[in-house]
Design goal:
With 65 residues, the chain is mainly β. It is 11% helix and 34% strand. The radius of gyration is 11 Å and the shape is globular. The protein starts with a strand and ends in a 5-residue tail after the last strand.
């Protein structure tokens, strides 16, 4: 299916937000996700299905000093 991730169109096989985050190699504990302009709580990442044309924005938190 085709979705947009941070403005780039991608062909993905992930079926949920959690699968997408894992497929992109991101730390699921340090990522905030917005789907179609709505923030998806981390507790719902595994239950939130992706659909053709979804617009996903991912923000990864980075620690350090």
């Amino acid at each position: 299916m085709r979705i947009q991730v941070n403005g780039d169109t991608r062909e993905v096989s992930a079926r949920t937000i959690l699968e997408l985050v894992e497929a992109l190699g991101l730390d699921v504990r340090k990522v905030a996700v917005e789907r179609n302009l709505e923030i998806v709580p981390r507790s719902l990442h595994a239950k939130t299905a992706l659909a053709e044309g979804d617009r996903i924005e991912l923000v990864q938190f980075v620690g350090g000093g």
